[in-house]
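Retry 2 of 3 after timeout on previous attempt. Resubmitting structure tokens to design endpoint.
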């Protein structure tokens, strides 16, 4: 069973920064994509950022472009989300997701990010 463990969430003031980490219990060498999603209360889960492991190409939600950066470290089987210039509307539970050829798609348990003064 593959496990994804997220960390780095918390309470931050508007304009602040956080870095989320998601460590996988399985090698990410043959993962095809690593993603971050978020879900705010009363809203549907939405894609925040995705990195395609074969090419390193990235996709971002329009609302976070220029503020968030997704990256990966295959040696550590970890995907990161650097979040800068945080806004109250970024408040949500953030989930990581990794898709592997064969095993399929797995999700982390989520980490709360709260942006408030």
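Retry 2 succeeded. Sequence:
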């Amino acid at each position: 069973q593959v496990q994804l463990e997220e960390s780095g969430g918390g309470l931050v003031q508007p304009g602040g920064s956080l870095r989320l980490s998601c460590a996988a219990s399985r090698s990410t060498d043959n993962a095809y994509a690593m993603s971050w999603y978020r879900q705010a209360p009363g809203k549907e889960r939405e894609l925040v950022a995705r990195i395609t492991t074969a090419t390193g190409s990235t996709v971002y939600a329009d609302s976070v472009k220029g503020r968030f950066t997704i990256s990966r470290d295959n040696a550590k089987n970890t995907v990161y989300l650097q979040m800068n210039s945080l806004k109250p509307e970024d408040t949500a539970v953030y989930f990581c997701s990794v898709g592997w050829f064969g095993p399929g798609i797995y999700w982390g348990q989520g980490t709360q990010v709260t942006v408030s003064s």
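Attempt log closed. The mean pLDDT is 96.
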